[in-house]
Design brief:
mainly alpha; two-stranded antiparallel ribbon; 2% strand; 8 helices
Length: 192
């Protein structure tokens, strides 16, 4: 419902979770361990996500977020003198993988250019790390994504690129001039 130039301003699932968490107070919260830390789940999630994100051309934002967040975790552990087992354990969270591969990568709410997506990913990783370390915020990644959603249209404006479009693999049916099933497709707003 909330759009700017034909793109979602917020990731719909993220803003729904954040809204319920804020309205529900202590009776609604996000469990960081709900997805577990099993290596089998992680391998399955990463494999499936890589297939989907490769075709959606959004694997860069997932990897950018994970690399940025991991660098912050390892940097903090080094600074505090913690054993490396702590950040390694933190990176094994199923919730982190679900967020990185399925939540932050929505093509309708992320910047269009690759460099803008990486900036967006690093900004979310930094805010999520700060919220979780300074304020021990549950669901810090979700709140960071919701808070920084406004960066997407700003980055699209500063670093314009072609907008993502799902294509029909059959080809000819994707012609905007031909009606599909008797209906004309809605025109898309695309910047030149």
């Amino acid at each position: 419902m909330i759009r700017y130039r034909g793109k979602h301003l917020f990731n719909p699932a993220c803003i729904g979770i954040v809204t319920v968490s804020l309205i529900g107070g202590s009776s609604a919260w996000v469990s960081p361990g709900q997805w577990g830390q099993a290596p089998l789940f992680g391998a399955f999630a990463i494999g499936f996500a890589a297939l989907v994100l490769s075709s959606a051309k959004r694997l860069d934002i997932a990897l950018g977020f994970l690399i940025g967040f991991a660098a912050m975790l390892f940097g903090r552990a080094l600074y505090l003198g913690d054993p490396m087992a702590i950040p390694i354990h933190q990176l094994q969270s199923g919730a982190l993988l679900v967020f990185a591969f399925f939540m932050i990568t929505d093509p309708r709410s992320t910047p269009d250019s690759r460099i803008a997506r990486l900036i967006f990913a690093f900004a979310i990783a930094a805010l999520a790390a700060w919220l979780s370390w300074e304020y021990h915020f549950r669901g810090a990644m979700l709140f960071a994504l919701a808070a920084l959603a406004i960066l997407s249209p700003v980055l699209d404006r500063l670093l314009p690129a072609h907008r993502f479009q799902w294509t029909d693999p059959k080809g000819p049916r994707n012609d905007p001039e031909k009606p599909r099933d008797g209906l004309r497709p809605r025109p898309q707003l695309v910047r030149s």
